[in-house]
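Structure representation.

___
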Amino acid sequence: MRLTALKSSQCSHPDSKYACPEIFLDVVADKLTSTAVLFLNVELLSEFYYNFPRELDARLGRGLSKEEVERFAREDKK
């Protein structure tokens, strides 16, 4: 039934979104999806940038002797 409504002459153009609620709902669904994707990307990147240095410190910095830390730091050729 929804597909037949979309194929009707009244709903054939995206400009008639006020006359045909299916087109309006499709536009709203697309906008909500894109907003949700952007929000999730920002949240995941924010969490990664916050946790990454702390995780490195926890895994590499803890439990190493001073000599091991210096040897690890010298491995970088810069």
Summary: Helices lie at 2-7, 21-61, 66-74. Residues 22 and 28 are 10 Å apart (CA to CA).
